[in-house]
């Protein structure tokens, strides 16, 4: 049994082009995540799908019970694969994720999904703080443009601005191709 877990974070319908909160390049992100998922299944790695709901009918996206809050078909869980429901950006906060991983002997997590500047960042930092070795597959993560002080920061710059500090201290940050070539 592998000590590595693939954690797919918030690859949900609302983040796609027809969703309520589209994320830049989400089709390419999900295609890369699907490649990671296929290999993880083939290698017998632990898999965890994380799904975010914002518990309010006023939420801008991920409203409970809506199609937008469902995991996208590109990375849909198979029967028996765990799905963690969360309500905060950090996938470990108020969920069983840490306990589930530790119970399976997981020491390394490979993280992909959305968004780079929120849930990926929060989850990767928490995983490192809990002592897991962390790999973030950066082109299997998507960012959304952000506005601050009347300036709009394009999604690619937001993505880079979050991947750089993760790579500096919290995680090994690699491309899908690089990661797959390491473990194939």
Automatic annotation (TrEMBL):
<dbReference type="GO" id="GO:0016787">
    <property type="term" value="F:hydrolase activity"/>
</dbReference>
<feature type="domain" description="Isochorismatase-like">
    <location>
        <begin position="4"/>
        <end position="148"/>
    </location>
</feature>
<keyword id="KW-0378">Hydrolase</keyword>
<protein>
    <submittedName>
        <fullName>Cysteine hydrolase</fullName>
    </submittedName>
</protein>
<dbReference type="Pfam" id="PF00857">
    <property type="entry name" value="Isochorismatase"/>
</dbReference>
<dbReference type="InterPro" id="IPR036380">
    <property type="entry name" value="Isochorismatase-like_sf"/>
</dbReference>
<dbReference type="InterPro" id="IPR000868">
    <property type="entry name" value="Isochorismatase-like_dom"/>
</dbReference>
<dbReference type="InterPro" id="IPR050272">
    <property type="entry name" value="Isochorismatase-like_hydrls"/>
</dbReference>
